[in-house]
Amino acid sequence: MNQKKLPNIAILATGGTISARGKSTTQMTGYQSGLVTVNEIIEGVPEVRKFANISGEQITNVSSPSLSFDIIKQLLARINQLLAEDIDGIVVTHGTSTLEETAYLANLLVKTEKPVVFTGAMRPATALSADGAVNLLNAVMLAGHPQAIGKGILVVLNGQINPGRDVTKTNSMSVETFKCPELGFIGYIQNNEPYFFRSTNKRHTINSEFSIDNLNSIPRVDIVYGYLNDDSLHVQASVQAGAKGIVIASPGHGTMSQAIKQGLIEAQQQGVIIVKTSRCGSGIVTRVEDDNRTNFVAGGSLNAQKARILLMLALTKTDNPREIQRIFDEY
Prior knowledge:
2 domains; Rossmann fold; eight-stranded mixed β-sheet; 9 helices; alpha/beta; four-stranded parallel β-sheet
C-alpha cells in the first residue's frame, strides 16, 4: 500500500520563549531567550516528522521586542522565496511579546495561499508543563494541512487557531493568552486535526496591494496613549521625531481629551496622518461626523499596535487620509 506523501515544511526560527532556558524547572519568568537553536527545537519534538518533511533555518535568535524591521523584512522575504519553491508550508517560531505584529505584517506582505503558521511558547523549554513542544507540533501539522490553504497567516498556540489580523496577546503569563477578543478563534486543533469554524473577509496575502519588494524604508508611526488628565506632549514629541503617522489609543470609541485632540489636529495640519483606535481591548472604532472636519481615520477593529502596522504600510502608498481610510476599511 502506498504511503501518504508528507508535505515539505520549513521552520523559520526567530527566538523568543520557545528558544529559552531557565535556571530551574520552576522558573517561569526572568529566563533568557535565544539559547536553543532551531535544530535543537526540532530535535526536541521528533513527533513533527510524522506530519512533514522538516527543514529548519535560524533567521535570528532574540527576544521578540528586540526584532528590527530589517530582520522582519528578511524573514518575510525568505518566506516568499521558500513558498515559491517546493515548500508546502511555513512555521515561524516567534517570541509572544510582538508575535501579533509580525504576524499581521506577514498577513499583508506574504504572497501565497500556502499555509504560514506562527507559534511560540509562554513557558521556557526547561519549565514544568512547557507548552512549546505541543505548539510546534500543532503548527507543523496545520502548515501541511489542506484546510489551512488560503486562510491567510495563522497563529496557533494552546490548541487554538487565530487569524494573524485579529489575534492579540491578552495575558502576560497564561498559556491561553492569544485570543481575538471581539471576533473569536477561527478554529481549534484536536487530536492532530484542525477544525475551522470561520474565516476573515478582510484582504490578505495574495489579495493584498502591499509587497515586500522595494520596501526599502518604512515611515515612522508612533502610538499615543490616552488617559485621565493627559496633554499633547507625546503628540508634539512624535511630530518632532519625524513621525508620518500617529495612532491614538483612546479611552473609548475614539474619545480623547481636548488637549490631545487639539495636538492631533495640529499634527494633521502638518501632514501627519491620525488614526483612532481604542485601548479598551474589544469593540470597534468607526467614523463620526467630526472626522470629516479633522481628517482623522477610524481604525475599525484593529488595536493600536495592529493599526500602527497597517498605517506604516499605507503611508508607503499614499498620504491622503480618505485613501488611508479605504485601506483601513478593506484590511
